[in-house]
Amino acid sequence: MEKVANSSHRRRLVLWVMMMIELSLFLPVFCAQIPPRFIVRRGVPGLYMYGIFERKEDFPDANMYQIRIAFKLKEDKFRFMAVSDTIQRIMPRSEDRNEYRSQTLAFKEAVLLTNPSNPSLKGEVDDKYQYSAENKDNKLHGWISDDDAVGFWIITPSDEFRTGGPHKQDLTSHVGPTALSLSEEIESWPYNFTRSEDFPHSEQRGQVNGQLLVRDRYMVKELMQAKSAFVGLAAPGDAGSWQTEGKGYQFWTQTDNIGHFSIKNVRPGEYNLYAWVHGFIGNYKLSLNITIQPGNKIELGTLIYDPPRNGPTLWEIGVPDRTAAEFFIPEPYEQFMNSITTDDTDKFRQYGLWERYSDFYPEGDLVYTVGTSNYSRDWFFAHVPRKAGNNTNRPTTWQIKYNLQDVKENGAYTLQLAVAAASFAEVQVEFNNPIARRPYFTTKRIGYDNVVARHGIHGLYRLYSINVPGYRFCKGENTIYLTQTRSVNSFDAVMYDYIRLEGPNSLVN
Length: 509
Ligand SMILES: *[C@@H]1O[C@H](CO)[C@@H](O)[C@H](O)[C@H]1NC(C)=O
Ligand SMILES: *[C@@H]1O[C@H](CO)[C@@H](O)[C@H](O)[C@H]1NC(C)=O
Ligand SMILES: *[C@@H]1O[C@H](CO)[C@@H](O)[C@H](O)[C@H]1NC(C)=O
Ligand SMILES: *[C@@H]1O[C@H](CO)[C@@H](O)[C@H](O)[C@H]1NC(C)=O
What we know:
mainly beta, five-stranded antiparallel beta sheet, rhamnogalacturonan endolyase, 4 helices, binds 2-acetamido-2-deoxy-beta-D-glucopyranose, transmembrane, secreted
């Protein structure tokens, strides 16, 4: 620990520490040693915290389900929370969530404030999951006090230590008011004042540069530059494995307008290079292991991603972007609003949207007609069960109707079904035959993302490339049936990312 020399800063630090009435590390202590570490620096009105997780060789294997640091602030001081530019406001107090002041909704995290201490919050929903953010955006969040111009901010200058890659969601985010200290901390990453040998400084880290291009000759003949693509290094594994990877460090960046990327400050180790590109399905992985050594700079040159594609697009629904954000997101029920998430980009975070499916489709399920329907209005953002009275749900079958004039009986067609999230769900797919004894295709039971109840718009990405022989199609009207067979509870659901029907290969080499 470094010394504090300046007394005025010491005073401020004491205040910070007093605010941390509770600092708890929820850890399975039997399997690892994790003394929390603090660094105090002259002239810096904050406290740096880190932990070293060490599993000694003679310790048994263990699952580390979750690691959390929790700060409990004095509620009379801190009332205003800021999580992002759009998600910020005066918050209810914890007592407002008790049984006298609120009503528990479909799960214990969500309450309706019926008699809050601050009357202006009456009638609002409160649920901590409405304030979550993706790892990549989770850089700054905190609280502002009314008096003393005091704030409490958690700044995360790098998310290399977080599990699951850039899109994994957790309970926090970033905001405007303290953007200056945020940028300073990001600029000075990796910190040069730590003394632990487990934390490599800048000169002990490596760099990987390259350019990513996309080849999809059914779209254009030329190679395309992968603009704003996510490119990252994570532990070796299959393409896309970074989504569920929790043991190694991950280093992500986004390409520029012409596909260039530079991944800096990578800790020494062995990695694979992964990517995904907005507008294209699938996962890229470079078929080389990349070994980073202290101080090295690896130039990969031009890399080409061939996204899955077997033939020309006959029709498509949505945008391949790993979320359901472009689909129809209904207005929330008036009685279940949380005014913190009224911004258009946060609309999906409102409480109770899943129930609205049964309002829009009280009798029959969703039917989407290619050519006349519009996915932003006619494709519900989540494939949820429908209410069937008496607190029961029934499975739902969505139909996609489309016209094919030219059917190649012997051709090989492909349905690209990209799923943005799944929770205890199963999607069965039928082509023109809704009552087949066995489904033509099933995803089988998939997912624990719990994305509907957690007010997310995506969970883990899954892509199914379903081969369909031409004789399954008719000249004229055709229907694809998507049945979500699980309906034990209202949150058994999938979110689609994008669906495309491809005709038989028509490229001449
Ligand atoms: C540490 O980094 C800061 C900027 O982030 C720089 O001003 C300072 O000179 C560095 N110190 C050393 C010892 O390299
Ligand atoms: C890459 O690393 C993985 C895991 O360490 C290993 O199983 C695999 O054989 C390596 N591949 C190559 C091409 O070296
Ligand atoms: C689809 O609906 C959205 C939202 O109403 C609208 O902005 C868009 O222009 C529509 N697209 C087409 C092709 O009509
Ligand atoms: C609802 O439950 C009641 C009482 O168990 C039963 O009489 C009624 O038939 C049920 N209605 C439906 C639609 O299942």
